[in-house]
Amino acid sequence: MTDFLTALALVLVIEGLFLAVFPHRLRQILQMLEQMTPENLRVGGLCVAGLGVFCVWLLRG
To answer: Which string of DSSP letters, residue by residue, matches 1-55?
Structure first.
């Protein structure tokens, strides 16, 4: 549970930094996401989740 909460906290840190450093770029990205089809968003999300699982597998062995 501690690892999960640590990972969640790191996600919040990274997202907060992204918002603080690139606020205008984030708005552009959100506009681009609105134009994408749900299927493309789903495939992209699954790819990113798979990459995350692979990275955790590499790091945790």
So the answer is: -HHHHHHHHHHHHHHHHHHHH-HHHHHHHHHHHHHS-HHHHHHHHHHHHHHHHHH
